[in-house]
Amino acid sequence: MSTRSRREEDANQAYDIQVKAGVQGAARASAVGIGLTIILHYTWPTFRRLRTPFKAFVVSGFAMAGLTFGAERALLAHESKRREEENALRRQARLELAQRGIIPTETEITKWRVEREQQMSALNEG
Fold first, then answer.
1. Are the C-beta atoms of 18 and 74 separated by less than 8 Å?
2. Contacts of 96 (CB under 8 A, 6+ apart)
3. Alpha-carbon 30 to chain mean position
4. Dist CA 95 CA 102 (whole Å)
5. What is the pLDDT of residues 27-76, one digit of tens each?
6. Own/partner long-range contacts of 78-84 (Cβ < 8 Å, ≥24 apart)
7. What is the pTM of this model?
């Protein structure tokens, strides 16, 4: 798999994770907003006199905040996980190349990665 296709696949995966987490965050925050609006409506006479569009604005504000923070939190977690995986792979490459007596430059690490992917695909096929 080339570097470009790997990046595109990772970007698509990150997008899917963001969308899923954003929808879940929006649903959760909307439920909180609706619950809070209902509680305020029945306990606070000043809030009860406010118009319905304002109450809908409050609920939509909760939903947008939940969408934004949920998607961002999920993306940061995904990026952190990918960074850890990449660092572990690079550490393994540096160790194996050093054992072969090769200086682990970026070019050599890239060659090692291609070689490793070919070995993995050969194992999966056979």
1. yes
2. 112
3. 21
4. 10
5. 999 999 999 999 999 999 999 999 999 999 999 999 999 999 999 999 99
6. 78/13, 78/14, 78/17, 79/14, 82/10
7. 0.77
